[in-house]
Amino acid sequence: MAGRFAGRVAFVTGGSRGIGKGIVEEFAKGGAKVAFIDLNEEALSETTSELKEKGYEVYSKVANVVNAEEVETAVKEVVDAFGSVDILVNNAGVIRDNLLFKMTDSDWQTVMDVHLKGSFNATRAVQKYMVERKYGRIINISSTSALGNRGQANYATAKAGLQGFTKTLAIELGKYGITANAVAPGFIETDMTKATAARIGISFDELIHASIAKIPVGRSGKPEDIANAVAFFADEKSSFVNGQVIYVAGGPKN
Fold first, then answer.
1. CA quadruple 231, 237, 242, 244: dihedral positive or negative?
2. Are 143 and 155 in contact (CB under 8 A)?
3. What is the C-alpha to C-alpha distance for residues 105 and 91, in angstroms, rounded to an integer?
4. Which CATH number describes the domain made up of 9-186+222-247?
C-alpha cells in the first residue's frame, strides 16, 4: 500500500479508543502496518475488526503496559509478524484526579505506573530492534497538564516526567537514527475528558463549551488533531526534529 508510512510498522500503546485509536487510524491510512495493545478487551476487539474490515494489516493484543514481560512479548510478536517496529507511540494513560489532600497512595501510584513505567517498558522493549535497524521514531503523549493543573498533581507530574524522558531518549538514541519527541494535547474530546466532566459534576457538553471559551481557535480538539502532530514526528523526513515537545491545544502554551 502506498503512503507516507508504507513499509513501516507502528506500535501504539492504549490504541483502542480516543487519541490512541486516532493515531492508529492515521498510520494505517498512511500505509503502515499497525500494532496496538490495550487493557480494554472489548474496545480492542472492536477497533481491530474495524481496521481489518478496511483492509489494514493489524496486530492487537490485550496487554498491560505496566507489566514489562507482557510488553516485551507483544513487541517480539510484532517483530516476528511484521519484521520490525519502526515507530512507537507511548499513548496509554489513565486519570485519577483529586485535590492533593484527597489524593490516595493508589491514585498517585497508578498514574505514575501507567504513564512513566509503561512508557519506559515499551521504549526499552522496542529500542533494541530500532538500534539494530538504525532507524526509529518514538513519540510520547504528554499533556498541557504538564504545566500544572488543579486536581491533577499525579497526572501533571507524570506528563512532565514524560517530557524529561523524551529529551533524554533524544540524546541517547539520536546517533542510532532514532528520534524521540512528545506531543502535548490540550482539551480533546475523548472518553477520558468525559470522565473529567462526570468527576466535576457537569455534562460533557458543558465541559466542552467551558473549554472552548478559553481556546484561541474557538473549538475543542479531536483525536485526529493529535494524530496529525504524531504523524509529523513519525515521518521519515522529520529526522532532524529531535527532543521536542509540541503543544496541540488551539493556542500557545509555555
1. negative
2. yes
3. 23
4. 3.40.50.720
The mean pLDDT value for 50-71 works out to 98
Q: Is 155 a catalytic residue?
A: yes
Domain ranges of the chain: 9-186+222-247, 188-220
Residue 74 to residues 16, 31, 78, 81, 88, Cα–Cα distance (Å):
15, 21, 6, 10, 13
A 10 A CB-CB count for 236 gives: 12
> Could you say which of 129, 155, 176, 247 is catalytic?
155
pTM score, two decimals? Answer: 0.97
DSSP per residue, 48-95:
HHHHHHTT--EEEEE--TT-HHHHHHHHHHHHHHHS---EEEE-----
C-alpha cell at 108: 498517585
DSSP string covering 129-140: HHHHHT-EEEEE
Where residue 32 falls (left for φ over 0; alpha for ψ -120 to 50; beta otherwise) is: beta
C-alpha cell at 20: 490512541
Check pLDDT > 90 for residue 28: yes
pLDDT tens, 96-128? 999 999 999 999 999 999 999 999 999 999 999
Phi, psi angle pair for 13, to nearest 5°: -90, 145
- Helix, strand, coil share of the chain (percent; to 5): 55, 15, 30
- pLDDT tier at 254, thresholds 50, 70, 90: low
Reference 61, options 87, 137, 76, 226; nearest CA is 76
